[in-house]
Specification:
Blueprint lengths: L6 H7 L3 E2 L9 E2 L1 H19 L4 E2 L5 E3 L1 H6 L1 H5 L5 E4 L2 E5 L4 H8 L4 E2 L5 E5 L2 E3 L15 E11 L4 H18 L5 E5 L9 H17 L4 E4 L9 E7 L5 E10 L1 H5 L4 E2 L5 E2 L2 E10 H12 L12 E5 L5 H13 L4 E3 L6 H10 L4 E5 L1 H7 L10 E6 L4 E6 H14 L2
Helix pairs in contact: 1-9, 6-7
The structure holds zinc ion (ZN).
The site of zinc ion has 5 residues, from loops.
């Protein structure tokens, strides 16, 4: 087996992203890397649309007062980037919760409005020392697949239950099996001990109901509430903690959030902070190493390369490219003056899943039916070096679409 490569090396070879001294810890996404980034976001958005989420977007730069109010300033200030604007202190947001809470508080919420699920792909900045920055795994600017669920305390258990099923479904779609860890009350916990007890009980019940196996991280909860950590193992059997489901009683208190309960009285909601994949930058870094650049079809920046054998095949090859593009499949034409074997070699090195070869036979097959490609032929190879031989062009398209849908 080839030596395993670091995601930075693969990122360079496949032209996905780069880093520059001018912006330590911030990713410059190249076109192909950005295609993957957007494909991942698209995948997440499709799933969330079915789960009753509302997507929001809030400012990157806000007055530091917000983080003083939310409590982040006391515990987190060394990670916050601050700047001075017209003699007032501002910060680059290190997390989305306080701003999502502001959106929550723009309306009088009723007990019937909850749970309210606000999702956000907000750009976050956290100050990490430049010495510990490391490719996509540790950056200063990133985006989390973040969401905040504002719930009544009697909804905690069912909401967590639903979330666990969603997490399992997400990872199943990506061919991973998540592992869960329940992190219990730390010694330095804030808030009402009874609330903690109830919340821990709710989380445990939800874990049981969801039929997932979980471990315990004793006293590893946050000071403001218990949490569930989500881990996966990659192809090299490395363990990654990716994301958390986190209960929070403190921000609602500090930001004075409320809803009007059935009895007409104002009550505090509970916030569930949750990310499923975690930082998208880091998750893509993990996927790059997990697949060693040979991504599943849906995630490949280029899904098919069409290779004409000689110049006289280019015209037909480019009409094939147009037809594939119409199906929203990412396809490139390699019409360079190179030998077929060198074009195949290049596509293989670029880890393009499929190559379609167009020669005399294929061009001739298209003449059988002028207006449709149904009976046209195409010779197909894979990046693994498998020759799938000639197949009907329509069958090839069908195969691509099925694989993209199934995410295999
Ligand atoms: Zn949050």
């Amino acid at each position: 087996m080839d030596k395993l490569k670091d995601h930075r090396q693969i990122g360079q070879e496949l032209d996905l992203f780069s880093f520059h001294d001018i912006a330590p810890g911030a990713v410059f996404w190249h076109h192909k890397g950005w295609i993957m980034y957007r494909a991942l976001q698209e995948f997440i958005r499709e799933k969330l649309a079915l789960e009753g989420y509302q997507e929001i977007s809030t400012p990157v730069m806000v007055k530091s007062d917000l983080f003083k109010k939310s409590g982040h300033w006391d515990f987190y200030s060394e990670h916050i980037f601050n700047l001075n604007v017209e003699n007032e202190p501002y910060s680059l947001k290190p997390m989305n919760c306080p701003e999502a809470s502001l959106i929550y508080s723009t309306k009088t919420r009723s007990y019937q409005d909850l749970p309210l699920r606000l999702a956000e792909f907000g750009v976050l900045h956290r100050n990490e020392l430049s010495g510990v920055l490391g490719g996509l795994f540790r950056v200063r600017q990133f985006v989390i697949d973040d969401a905040h669920h504002f719930v009544r305390s009697d909804q905690i258990q069912s909401e967590i239950h639903k979330l666990l099923l969603l997490v399992v479904d997400f990872y199943k779609s990506l061919n991973f099996k998540p592992e869960f860890y329940f992190a219990t009350k730390p010694d330095k916990a804030m808030g009402d001990p009874n609330l903690w007890k109830q919340a821990e009980k709710d989380l445990k019940e939800a874990l049981k109901d969801s039929n997932v196996k979980y471990g315990i991280k004793e006293k590893d909860g946050a000071f403001y509430g218990p949490k569930i950590d989500i881990h996966i193992k990659d192809s090299q059997n490395r363990d990654w903690q990716l994301a958390t489901i986190q209960l929070d009683f403190q921000i609602p208190e500090r930001m004075k959030l409320k809803y009007i309960d059935r009895d007409g009285k104002p009550k505090r909601p509970v916030i569930i902070h949750r990310a499923i994949l975690g930082s998208l930058e880091r998750f893509i870094g993990i996927l790059i190493e997990h697949y060693q650049g040979a991504f599943p079809l849906w995630f490949s920046p280029v899904q098919v390369v069409i290779i004409p054998i000689a110049d006289r095949h280019i015209k037909y090859a480019s009409s094939i490219v147009d037809t594939i593009e119409l199906q929203r499949i990412r396809v490139e034409l390699d019409s360079r003056q190179e030998t077929v074997s060198s074009k195949i070699r290049n596509a293989t090195l670029q880890k393009v899943p499929y190559m379609g070869i167009i020669g005399d036979k294929e061009v001739k097959s298209s003449k059988l039916k002028v207006k449709s490609y149904d009976d046209s032929l195409i010779s197909v190879r894979t990046r693994e070096g498998k020759d799938l031989g000639q197949m009907k062009f329509s069958a090839f398209l069908q195969k691509l679409k099925e694989e993209i849908d199934k995410k295999i």
